[in-house]
Structure formats: structure tokens, C-alpha cells
Amino acid sequence: MEAKPATGTQSRTERSDFRATADPALNEAADRTSEVKLLTYAELYDLWERQQWQTQELDFSRDREDWHQRISPEERFQRMYGLSSFFIGEQKVAEELGPIMRAAPTEDQKIFLCTQIADEARHVRFFERFYREVGVLESDRLSEMLAETSAHLNEKFGALFDGMLKERTDRLSAEPEDAEALVEAVTLYHMVIEGMLALTGQHFIMDFNEREGTLPGFVEGFSNVARDEHRHVAFGSVFLREKAREDDRYKQAIQRTLEQALPLADGVLQPPWAENAGEDFELFGYSLEETRQFAGTCLMRRLKVIGLG
């Protein structure tokens, strides 16, 4: 299926409910100044209450028809990398949030991170419902679905999630008072995994499906997931801004983590089926360079507001 010219990414990032999160990536002023207003932890919690949604309200009947009748087997295979990255990613980050929440130094931070744990669990259930009701996989149980879909991932994905992220959350489990480990974990989790990889992939996947007129139930639910992620990244932005202003060693921890994580994150952007294509391939109608540019712009805006730009 040949992709049509991009039309929806910019309008989506301008949605009022997305911008309500105060994620710096959605604020063009962050290109010019670090003095961008961010929401407090209490305000982010209140926003979470206002932005509730239910996976059980989504209708996937049209999506099932699209998947089996309108989307070719070759394209289904190519789409599975993006779907698998999110399904496995949501499950892994849901597991790793507990140590981050327990290590957070204030009660307001802990309370917001509890909402994020609930969000990540809902995201896993969203993908489970989509996979089951659309008939994407042969497996039917959640654990079996996760195992089956993991075959579509590449080694860089495992190194980022099972290596870097787990190493830091294991440190926090053993020493929750380790503030540098907490800063590293939030940098990796909120800035790289959610802020760069997840939100970039979400915007392009939704844009592609809207242009092709496919998977409307998935797009509706995935838009809700993206809104949640912008709220999570907004938390990471205010937390890291506070820590960067508190002590230069936390700035160094942020920079150190980014230097280690960004090469892996760049590798996650390239699916296994395109490994021999170099950089001359498109995913969801976008080149690798366009994907990198979108992710890079979002990261640089957030880093500027944190105080590292």
C-alpha cells in the first residue's frame, strides 16, 4: 500500500488535549527559551483525572476487516515491528516503574507516578484487546501474545529495555535513595523511551493509518495512549529541570545517560526487515531521516527547557 503525502502529524501535535500536558516538545517557544512554564506534579495529577479513557469502549470491528481484507500480508508483516515495539515496550515499562515511584523523593511525585503505572497497565490491555479482537496473532493468552510478538523486535530494543533501563531500576530497588540512579532512570524512561521512541512512533503510525483510512479503532485508542505519554514526559521534564537546577552532578547524569542511550535508540528506529537496506527505506510513509528529525526536535526542546539545550 503506497503512502500518501503526510498531512496529519502537525495538526495532531497541535491538539488542545495534547498541549494541555505542557510537554515542551509541543511548544515552539522551547526552540528559543528555556523559561517555558511546566505543570506542577499536582496539576499533572488533576489532568490525569480529566483525561481518563477506557479500552473496553473501543470498537475494533472495522479494524478486523481492514487487517484481514484491506492490508496485504507483506504490509501486515512490516506493520508488526511498530506494533510489537509498543506492545512489548508498554509491558516492560509497566514492570520497571515501581522502583522509580518508590525512589521519588516527594509524595506529589509518587502520587503522579502511581497514575503512570495505571496508564501503562491500560496501554498493555489496549494492545491485548486490539491483537485479540482483530486476530493479529495466533496466541490468545497475554503471556503467549507477548512471547509471539517479541520475535519482531531487534537486538537494540533488548539492549535498551532489558539492559539499560533494567540496570537502573534494579539499582533503585536495592538503593532507592540513589538520586543519580533515579535521574538516570527518568532520563532513560521519560526522555528517550517515551519522549523520543514512543511518541515519534505514535505520531507517524497514527498519521499513516489516517491517510490510508485503516484501523480507526486502533487510531482512537492509540491517540489516547499518545496523550498519556505526553503527560508522562511532562512529568519527566519538570523533574529533570528541578534536579538539573539543584546540582551539576545531576546534569552530568542526564548527559551521561543520553550519550549511552541515543545510539541504541537510533537502532530501535530501524526494523529487522530493513537491516540490509541501510537508510534507504520508509516506514509508515516516512524515511529514517524524517523520523530522526522529528524525534530529535522533540528531544532538543525538552532538553532546552530542562536546562541542557
What does this molecule look like?
With 309 residues, this protein is mainly α. It has a single domain, classed as Ribonucleotide Reductase, subunit A (Orthogonal Bundle), CATH 1.10.620.20. Helix content is 72%, strand content 1%. A two-stranded antiparallel ribbon has the order 1-2. Helix 8 packs antiparallel against helix 9 and helix 9 runs antiparallel to helix 10. The longest helix has 34 residues. The N terminus is likely disordered.
Beta strands, count? 2
CATH structural architecture: Orthogonal Bundle
Count of alpha/pi helices: 12
What string, H for helix and E for strand, traces the elements in order? Answer: HHHHHHHHHHHEEH
Please outline the helices and strands.
Layout: H1 9-13, H2 16-19, H3 41-50, H4 61-70, H5 73-103, H6 107-134, H7 142-149, H8 155-174, H9 179-212, H10 216-246, H11 248-268, E1 282-283, E2 286-287, H12 288-306
Antiparallel strand pairs: 1-2
Helix pairs in contact: 3-6, 3-10, 5-6, 5-8, 5-9, 6-10, 8-9, 8-11, 9-10, 9-11, 9-12, 10-11, 10-12
